[in-house]
Write a structure and sequence with these properties.
mainly alpha, 5 helices
């Protein structure tokens, strides 16, 4: 009986951890404006790079705070979920709190990205998006190749 409870919980933990990594909560912001390849590709000026860094630094404390809150709520949810005695309502409440914390972190991250877009030309935004898309496709292909072996 214990195996039937532990295996789904382990699966849930692994899935949650990968989702957390994928979404990059908290300080998990990729500072692409520090990547020389991208900055050259999109002709990012030193002034633009400094503005992007200033915007990031203005959001960094809030992102760090929200990332910590999300981690706390995620841990509380997992603790509640793994407690076989926890009432359904407690599990749902813990899940709702975790989801709300995740939303709050993503909203602030979106606000930061929208502020950053103001420092770039439409062509530069397209260039960054193209770079990211190519990177995702490359890594997806590598992952698929590993799975096929």
């Amino acid at each position: 009986m214990r195996r039937y409870i532990v295996l789904p919980l382990l699966l849930l933990l692994v899935m949650s951890a990968s989702a957390f990594a994928k979404h990059g909560h908290g300080k998990g912001v990729w500072k692409w404006w520090e990547n020389e390849k991208i900055t050259q590709e999109i002709n990012l000026t030193d002034q633009q790079s400094a503005e992007l860094e200033r915007i990031y630094e203005s959001y960094e404390p809030r992102l760090e705070e929200l990332g910590g809150t999300y981690k706390e709520k995620r841990t509380a949810f997992h603790d509640t979920m793994s407690n076989a005695q926890a009432p359904r309502g407690d599990v749902i409440s813990a899940f709702d709190a975790m989801s709300e914390a995740e939303y709050d972190a993503q909203k602030v991250k979106l606000d930061m990205k929208l502020d950053m877009r103001q420092a770039l030309s439409p062509e530069q935004i397209d260039g960054v998006n193209e770079f990211v898309q190519n990177w995702k496709e490359k890594h997806r292909a590598k992952h698929q190749e590993k799975q096929n072996k």
